[in-house]
Every structure is written in structure tokens, then in C-alpha cells.
Amino acid sequence: MTPYEAWFGKKPVVHHLRTFGCIVYVKNTKPNLKKLKDRGQRMVFIGYEKGAKACRVYDPTTGKVVITRDVVFDEGTQWDWSGMENLETGSDAGSGDSFTVEYPVKENRRAIEGKEGQEHTPSIQSQLEPLVDENIEEEEPITPVVAQFAPAADPSPIQFVSPPSNIDENFDADHAHPDYGESPVRFRTLDDIIGQVTPPGQAARDLDRVELLAVNRQALGLKWVFKVKRDEKGAVVRHKARLVVKGYFQQQGIDYDEVFAPVARMEAIRLLVSLATHEGWEVHHMDVKSAFLNGELKEEVFVEQPPGFLDPNNDHKVFKLHKALYGLHQAPRVWNHKLDESLISLGFKRSPSEHAIYFKEEGIEVKQSTESISLCQKDYARKILEKAGMAGYNACQTPMVPRLKLTKESGSPLVDATLYRSIVGSLRYLVHTRPDLAFSVGYVSRFMEEPHEDHMAAVKQILRYVAGTKDKGLFYGRKKGTEPMLTRFSDSDHAGNVDSRKSTSGIIFFLGDGAVLWQSVKQRIVANSSWEAEYIAAATVACQAIWLIRIEVKFVSTADQLGDILTKPLGRLKFQELRDKIGICQMD
């Protein structure tokens, strides 16, 4: 029994008590947080504030004590104090150059009424283990730094002091973004930074035109942001400096208006990657260097002269920005406008439902009349020939040489795999309106991993055939008084693949006289005989037509088998005969 229970006759309420030293997540009240910035900061619970409904939490990374009531407790975890011995100095304990800085903390005025102006200078040593060696020589007094949770009225950058001999050892943060104004002491050497800091106007990407103007309006401040660029192994490859605007002083309606800029949803990105994988497309990733600096400003924005580059003869004047700088509220939006204009000028169209996705229609030309509809891709075929450098080559009658057999273990030299994949990938899109190319394009697609000269020769044969038939396409005619019937053909060769001895299935569906679906695919298993390969092809047709109530199977002779064009290279006469039968004709 506790004294409380003995005196009051009831058990005390202790549900509000929390585990000392547990992890807490403090709400980050810093203004103008970016979208992906953490809304909570990880700290350590050290007690309660007297006279207020608030907690005292300790930030081991800064050595500050924060008084707040916006916390979430995680009593199941504790702070890992291993490796925290040199947290405040960033140097080895016992070093003669080490020093200690104490940070006064402003109290939370919302939680503590009537205590305005009172400051707390916590003694961390009384509550936790010492973080630094006690035998450290004292440095000169250092200007106190206001706790980050208190509203900052002075926009001046925080100054950090460190002995010059420790500069090489103290910086050990991966991809850090310290914005320490004119004191980049956390980098390895000042020479590395000075070499990266260039005055505005030296690079066309930074400012279109620099002018010093005397104005009677508020100018925005500038600051330097320094970053260490590392390679995949963590080694420092470059020290980067960027001049940014203190955009948190901008006033809406004066310095900026609208700020929204579309961002691609991850679902859309994953959809495109999945589609590219399915279609065998090559994905290119491109990055625009200093992208925001390309955006052109519509508003009049004035900024102060950059720190370290003040003109002593014109220190009362400011710069007028013609292009955006990082830190401006409207910088993402004006960059998006610039990108949108550039992509549209290249023939791209923006998706109406996902404004961060653009597509370019290579063009299926549709011609429609009262009696027929035709589909053709002659412009796209012409672009393929130009990209491959074969626009003026002589045409040929068939896309492949009869009885051609290619193998992965070719003895000919290797060719440029990127060019090979690019051409074959373009031809695969052309197959959407050209079933006569389905087998030949599918056949050369099997060697995209490591193409050789004989594989490229087969691709050039296809391109020569396209050059002579680029005006051909699908034709769907209308027959009055007849019901269109869905007709399906399936065929297969036997062990046509030299490497795996798998067969190739060819299927084609007709609605009336027009082909609506066709496939030329390598079978998944090795057929023991030709009739087994035929049955596998028939099963593929059944899978495509499973929605039908009944599938009627009829024998078709070789002379009438339209699927034969999808299974193997044919002679000129036979190929042209079947090409005409499946609806490929000359477009007017």
C-alpha cells in the first residue's frame, strides 16, 4: 500500500507517468517544411516541466533541452548512447582542440504561461553520462544559439565555431546539407569550398542577366548551402556550393502568386516501369542539372547581394532576378512551365489525368469511310528507317530469307547492343498494324541480350522490307448483308529454335476479313513431334478464345493455313499470298 492510498483511500492514478529515458517523437514546428521532411524529431524523455502540462525532452544531436507537449512516446525503445561520447565536439575525447558549447533553451510559451523571458540552461551532466572529457580546455565564450523550436525572429544564419585543425576530421555526415551561411567549417578544407562558390552571373544557368538596382522595397536574403557529393562507395568526389534564396520571407501577392507544381505519383512510375519491362523497352533516366535555375520568373523579385560577394561601392543596391533560384516558393512551378513548354515543342502531349507524365504518339493513321476503315503507320516506319540510317536502301520482297536459322552461339563479331535493341524495339511497335512482321520481328527479338553481326543482318533485311512496304497497313472492309464471323487459325513449326529446340506457335484471329489478333511466340516446352507442337499452338488459340461458348476445330490444309506466315520464313510468292489474305494492303 502506498502512502497516497493510505491517506485518500484509493489507488493513485499513474497512467500519465512515462518511462524515464525512453524515445519520444517531438512535433517539428519549423515553418516551411518540405513535403517529404520528417514531421517528428527523435529525442529522449527526461522528465516533466514544473507548473505546466509539458514534458522536458533532450535532443542528443544538438545538446538542447526542449519543453513541449506535442510528443509521442515510444516506451519500448531507448536511445543508443554508444558512440555519443564525442557528439558535441565531433572530435576524439581528450583532444586538445575539443570544446564544449552550452545552448540556452526558450520555453514553449503556449505551454508555460507567465514565465516569459525565463531561460533554462540545463546541466546534462546531472541527468546523463558526460558526453565529453571533463579535462577539456575552455574556449572563448560562444554566442548562444536559440533552440530550434522557438520562433526565430532573426533570420541570420547560425554560426558554428571549430578549431581549424579539426576541419579535416570533423565532417563525417553522408550527403549533409548544412546551410551555415558564410562559415562552411564542417567541410574538409576551405579551399574545396571556395573553388565551388562562384558569384551570380558567371554561369548562364544561375541568372539570365544581373543588374544592380536601387529599389525602395523589401529584398530577400541569400545564403550558401554546402553539400558533400559521394560516390557509391561513400568516398568524397566533390564539394558543392549552391546559392539559395531565403524564401520564407516572401510575401504572397508581391513576390509570388501560385506555387503548385505537379509531381509524378509512384504508382504511375511503377506502372511505366512494369509496362516497359513487359514490352521490352529500354528505360532512360535523365537529370537536369540545376533544374530550377532554368525557370523564368514573371514576378519582380529582388534579392540582396550574395554573402562574400558584396560590392563595397554599391552595398546599398540589390539584384533583380530574371530566372528562378532555389528557395523561391514559385521555383518548382516556373521550372515545370519551362519543362512543359520544351516537351510540347518536341511533340509530346501531357496526360490529362497525370500531369507529370507525357507521351508522344508515333501515330497510327486511321482512314475511315462509309465502307471501310484502314490502319497504317507509314510515318512511324519512315522514322524507324531514318533512325537506323537506312532510309535510302533498296527494298526487298520478304522480311526474312527463307529457311534462315540463327543461333545465340554465333561466330560473328558482336555489334552495338543498344542500337540493336532500339531498332528491334521500334519494330515491335510497328507490328501493331503489321501482322506480316510478327514472326520476323519476334525472331530477331530473341537475340537482344548479345547480338552479333548475323543478327543485325537479319534486322537490316526486315528494315529493307519495311522500306518497300511502309505504305501498307490493315484494311477492314464492310460486307453488306453478312454477319461477321470470328475465325481463328493456329499453326506451328517443329523444333525451329536451334538453341533450345522449341517450336514457334502462330495464331491469328479474324472478324470477317480483317485480322484483329495475332501472335508469333516461342513455345514454353519442347515438343516431341510436329503434331504435339500443333496441339500446343491450338491450346494457345483456346486460351485467347476462352470467352467463347464453344470452339469449333476444323482441319485446314497447308495451302489455306493463314497462320503459316507467323511460324517460319517463307518464300516470296507464298509470303505475299498470305500477306494479302490476312488483310495487309496498299494505303492510298
TrEMBL record:
Protein name: Reverse transcriptase Ty1/copia-type domain-containing protein
Domain Reverse transcriptase Ty1/copia-type: 215-363
Residue intervals of the Retroviral polymerase SH3-like domain: 22-82
Pfam family membership, one: RVT_2
Top-level taxonomy: Eukaryota, Viridiplantae, Streptophyta, Embryophyta, Tracheophyta
Matches recorded under InterPro entries: DNA/RNA_pol_sf, RVT_2, SH3_retrovirus
CDD domains reported in the protein's UniProt record: RNase_HI_RT_Ty1 (cd09272)
